[in-house]
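User: Okay, second chain of the day. Same drill as before: sequence in, structure tokens out.
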Amino acid sequence: IFLLATTDPQKLPVTVLSRCLQFHLKHMEEQTISKHLAYILQQESIDFETPALELISRSAEGSMRDALSLLDQAIAFGQGKVQEEDIRTMLGTIDHQFMVKLLEALANKDSAEAINAVAEMSHYPVDFADALKELLSRIHQIAIFQSTGVLLDQAAPYVEDFAGRIASDDLQLYYQMGLHARRDLEWAPSPRQGLEMALLRMLAFRLEPSQVIQNSSSQTSLDSEAKKKASLNPAEPITQKTP
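Assistant: Same drill. Structure tokens below.
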């Protein structure tokens, strides 16, 4: 019995694939990866912080192999310890304080505040593409908390506060625009400019409840007027003229 493991089976010859049973392995959940990393560190008697393992699990994107590689780097980087601050520095992930400032700007609908937050982030080793990705993740968590009351990330209790300050329709708009911004980020002159324009776009276009109500009322009026005209001018019966 031969076991072949690959992430690109299309490169194998067709004659080989036709004689194999293919098992497509799905990505592992972040929680499963984090628990396994914690088990390894406990067996090795290495001190660790749970939020640090969650960062590694998120960066692994469903691959246990990548998570173990990152864990080895983290142990060496932290000199025998796995701590959240060290992992954020190693991975270039965004500190909670910056996410709070970006969400604060969105909650206040303040463009200047958003640009100032990005400028402050530039003084740190931050990947702005990852910052946009992290912002979308937090927006998703806020939307989930609004709908279900479930806090997906216990290390981010500020999600609960913003769930009461940002309207659900605004969250959907921010998320959709953020997805488009991530897709177009490679065409931006720089990742920082891409993030800034994404934030400005989020704040420039938003739905006004008054407009929605007005449009609904206008449509109701048009429907009523149409029905009134129909009752006053009933359709005449069609008659066929004989020669």
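The mean pLDDT is 84.

User: Thanks, on to the next one.
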